[in-house]
Amino acid sequence: MISKKMEEMIVTQYHKELFSAYQYFAMCSYFLDLELDGFANFFRVQAEEELMHAMKQFDYLHEVDGKMTIGSIEAPENEFNSILEVFQKTLEHEQYITKSIHQIVKAALDEADFATHEFFQWFVKEQVEEESTMRNLIGKLKLIDGNTSALYLLNEELLRRQPEANPGA
Ligand SMILES: [Fe+2]
Ligand SMILES: [Fe+2]
What we know:
The chain has 169 residues and is mainly α. The protein has helices at 4-33, 37-63, 83-110, 114-119, 121-144, 148-159.
């Protein structure tokens, strides 16, 4: 049986994961509009992973006898000024999500909810990866600095990103 406080935190986190998916679908759409299919693919896969994160939390909450109350999700940003800006905003957003996950882990520990503490360890690791991926791409984009052939190659590289076969297993 999960506490009301932990239940509320997981419900909120679930909505943040869905918002992340919305935001990344908007970024996917931005890149499709620019005919940058590789960048679009990267954000499509990114969005799908966020949906999977939300689903994991949904399932967990019910497993521990909590209840997921579905609320609204705000509209994401749809307009961006540059490719670099999209990735900088993504990194900032992931840093915000990391803080949010850490707060859940800390609260779980404070009330000796070891099951929730353990469940969110996967997300702690996932956030390290998410931030590192975004920093790496920001670095590459700064290096590219508007060079169109280099941008073309990065687009081709990102076209190859596939959804994880069995994420979180
Ligand atoms: Fe996530
Ligand atoms: Fe994420």
